[in-house]
TrEMBL record:
Its cofactor is Fe(2+). Belongs to the carotenoid oxygenase family. Fe cation binds at H175, H233, H306, H519. InterPro entries: Carotenoid_Oase. This is Retinoid isomerohydrolase RPE65. Binds 1 Fe(2+) ion per subunit. The keyword Repeat does not apply. Pfam families: RPE65. Transmembrane segments: none annotated. The keyword Zinc-finger does not apply. Keywords: Iron, Metal-binding.
Length: 524
């Protein structure tokens, strides 16, 4: 419970730093842990007297904790995106963000306004969602076609890259997958010629001087609804398959294409819910890549942002997800006015929102006509079912791995390097209470046992798992999370937890507030 509403502080603007600042360490940082924790999030929540309205609007700030010889420093810089540079120059919101509209410059005359109207608005390059490596380079990303190359040491902005120059996609998710050989896979919507619609899975090859230039679409999945692609935030990858979940949250393409001529319209205005389709699962093979069009999986409606993991076992694909029940779009509840209210208001707003649940779905690969009406799942360790209907569709019911009233297990992480696409036991996540992040949770997906780290008036962020060198146990390693404790003398700290027991090993306090961060990367 957070009656003091300290969580408001994580949604307030900060200044960047001119140089890294030292952190004060309590406890012992493991001697093997050396590297940088890079995190992305919004850092400026208004420009001049114009506020940003949505959690995904604030201008992108990159954060870095450096760990070296038991010492820790903290540094942060704003990304010099076009969104940022032009906002600073004109002291107003110049480019429309996710939930905040940019209005035409009042100083411009009618002619230049008229031309802007026909050129259409510019797509934002405000890359506040994640930062990850592609080849030797690091890119800060959002979900549009623009990604930004960043120097992981100095945090300087190096260059803006337009993915449309290399790939037929309108954007890629902020959640790529990396294969053992370093190949990167991602998925994005593609609005093709004559308004044909598809989802494209793309591949960026490893170890090439400029890997993005060599990227290509490997497989295309059809959209179940013409002119209305589903919103995609992440996808699943096993050794041999890609998993794509087509959710009832839709982008209305016609709205999207005419939007730019409507005064005050934003990306959020282009979303709508389909209340009759439920949720569809699609599989494609990986190599050679091909869509399994004969496997039609359906289940009831949910919102999906984060896949936890997926793997194959005995002729099934097991898919673990952080779901939100129903077709009402969760992002409708992430306006800053909602998140910065009094605690009672925050609770009231969350009561109306979709309810979170961690679920396991099991997709049979081997399907025979004669099994109609039967549950096709015979795995001993799950209660998830898949029933073949007469129309050839397979109706899925999940096994619930974690569920608590308005208690979300979100921003999930696993021991990715060793267990991505493999049968695994542990997921680590950020616990949200009514959308406010207030604990770190470890979940055993096999036994459903949970462990929790929580501290009074502390607001953690997504926990990243770093394995102990030479570890043989799946959970032998540490979790890194950036925690904000608004009332404290040093109001933020890097928290280092033992991933096995979720006990604190060390914390590194810094003398500045760190606003909310969404996703990031540990760079050894």
């Amino acid at each position: 419970f957070h009656p003091a509403a300290g969580y408001r502080k994580i949604f307030e603007s900060v200044e960047e730093l001119t140089e890294p600042i030292p952190a004060k360490i309590t406890g012992v940082v493991p001697s093997w842990l050396g590297g940088s924790l890079l995190r992305m999030g919004p850092g400026l929540f208004e420009v001049g007297d114009e506020p940003f309205h949505h959690m995904f609007d604030g201008l992108a700030l990159v954060h870095k904790f450096d760990l070296k010889n038991g010492q820790v420093t903290y540094y942060r810089k704003f990304i010099r995106s076009d969104s940022y540079v032009r906002a600073m120059t004109e002291n107003r919101v110049v480019i429309t963000e996710f939930g905040t509209a940019a209005y035409p410059d009042p100083c411009k005359n009618i002619f230049s306004r008229f031309f802007t109207y026909f050129r259409g608005a510019e797509v934002t390059d405000n890359c506040l969602v994640n930062i990850y490596p592609i080849g030797e380079d690091f890119y800060a990303v959002t979900e549009t076609n623009y990604i930004t190359k960043v120097d992981p040491d100095s945090l300087e902005t190096l260059k803006k890259v337009d993915l449309c120059k290399y790939l037929s996609v309108n954007g890629l998710t902020a959640h790529p997958h990396t294969d053992t050989d370093g190949t990167i896979y991602n998925i994005g919507n593609c609005f093709g010629k004559n308004m044909s619609l598809a989802y494209n899975i793309v591949k960026i090859p490893p170890a090439h001087k400029d890997p993005i230039e060599k990227s290509q679409v490997v497989v295309q999945l059809p959209s179940s609804e013409r002119l209305k692609p589903s919103y995609i935030h992440s996808f699943g990858m096993t050794d041999n398959y890609f998993v794509f979940v087509e959710q009832p949250v839709k982008i209305n393409l016609l709205k999207f294409l005419t939007l730019w001529n409507i005064r005050g319209a934003t990306y959020m205005d282009c979303f709508e819910s389909n209340d009759s389709m439920g949720t569809l699962f699609h599989l494609t093979t990986k190599d050679p890549a091909g869509y399994l069009s004969s496997h039609k999986f359906r289940t009831s409606a949910f919102n999906l942002f984060h896949h936890i993991n997926a793997y194959e076992d005995e002729g099934y694909v097991i898919v673990d997800l952080c779901t939100w029940k129903g077709h009402d779009f969760v992002y409708n509840y992430l306006y800053l006015a909602n998140l910065k209210g009094e605690w009672e208001e925050v609770k009231r707003a969350a009561l109306r929102a979709p309810q979170p649940e961690v679920r396991r779905y099991v997709l049979p690969l081997d399907i025979h006509r004669e099994d109609q009406g039967k549950n096709l799942v015979s795995l001993s360790y799950t209660t998830a079912t898949a029933v073949l209907h007469s129309d050839g569709t397979i109706w899925l019911e999940p096994e619930v791995l974690f569920s608590g009233p308005r208690q979300a297990f979100e921003f999930p992480q696993i021991n990715y390097s060793q267990y991505r696409g493999k049968k695994y036991s542990f997921a680590y996540g950020l616990g949200l209470t009514h959308f406010i992040p207030d604990r770190i949770v470890k979940l055993n997906v096999q036994t459903k046992e949970t462990w929790v780290w929580q501290e009074e008036e502390c607001y953690p962020s997504e926990p990243l798992f770093v394995p102990t060198p030479g570890a043989t146990e799946e959970d032998d390693g540490v979790l890194l999370s950036v925690v904000v404790k608004p009332g404290a003398e040093r109001p933020s700290f890097l928290l280092i937890l033992d991933a096995m027991k979720l006990t604190e090993l060390a914390r590194a306090d810094v003398n500045t507030i760190i606003p909310v961060t969404l996703h990031g990367t540990y760079k050894p």
